[in-house]
Amino acid sequence: MAKIVFKVQASGSVAQWVSRLRGVVSNLSIGSISAAIAADTPVFERRLFDRQDPELCTRLLALLKNLESNDVAYEAYELRDSETFDPSKKATYFKVNADRLATMIESRKQSLDRLYEAAELESDQDEGD
Question: So what's the pLDDT on residue 118?
């Protein structure tokens, strides 16, 4: 599974985005979000497609689109579950923007649809035996 690391670059307009960030990952406090932004560290690092929070990717996509349309600088990277974010290795991570995230979400949906179809075909074959 992939995980996403997200950070917002500090600027004068960031304060208005803190509550929106909290809406994406609800278990973060406003203080921890503000501190991460001020320290230029990731605001969160979460599994992108997680059964415990299946809508994270959708909320994150809406946020990225909103940030991009308002010219707010951010960084988002895809990492493997086993990786730990290291700022010195940012160039080696897959950088995510709204378009790439939308493609990732669509690819995941298509992959799941194919799996479900294959499972249905297998089930139909088992019933025919």
Answer: 81
- pLDDT confidence band for 14 (50 / 70 / 90): low
How much is the average pLDDT of 16-42? 81
For every residue of the chain, DSSP letters joined together read -EEEEEEE---TTTHHHHHHHHHHSTTS-HHHHHHHHHHT--SEEEESSBTTBTTHHHHHHHHHHHHHHTT--EEEEEEETT----GGGGGGSEE--HHHHHHHHHHHHHHHHHHHHHHHHHHHHHHH-
CA 77 – CA 73 distance, rounded (Å): 14
Is residue 26's pLDDT more than 80?
Answer: no
Measured between alpha carbons, how far is 40 from 29 in angstroms, rounded to an integer?
17
Top pLDDT among 34 and 19 is at: 34
CA dihedral of 60, 64, 67, 73, whole degrees rounded to 10: 110
